[in-house]
TrEMBL record:
Protein name, as recorded: Glutamate synthase [NADPH] small chain
MF term (GO), any: iron-sulfur cluster binding
Annotated signal sequence range: none
InterPro entries per the UniProt record, alphabetical: DPD_II, Glutamate_Synthase, Helical_ferredxn
Species assigned in the record: human gut metagenome
Residue ranges of every copy of the Dihydroprymidine dehydrogenase domain listed in the record: 4-67
Length: 71
């Protein structure tokens, strides 16, 4: 679980604004095409709030059991 929290913290410092927006730029999608609120989700993971992280992801994703897997 510590590795997931490290990754969540790293995401918060990446410097890409509005990464959850799923905007098409030059024919490529930036951010989450499902419009998941990745920064919010990663912050909850970083703080160890696993149930809230799942619930946050479930609001925008029909398959949170797949998209919430951390490899």
């Amino acid at each position: 679980l510590e590795e997931q929290q490290i990754q969540g913290a790293r995401c918060m410092d990446c410097g890409v604004p509005f990464c959850q927006s799923g905007v098409i730029i030059s024919g490529m999608v930036t951010g989450c095409p499902l419009h998941n609120l990745i920064p919010e989700w990663n912050d909850l993971v970083y703080r160890g709030k696993w149930k809230l992280a799942y619930e946050r992801l479930h609001k925008t994703s029909p398959f949170p059991e797949f998209t919430s897997l951390l490899l």
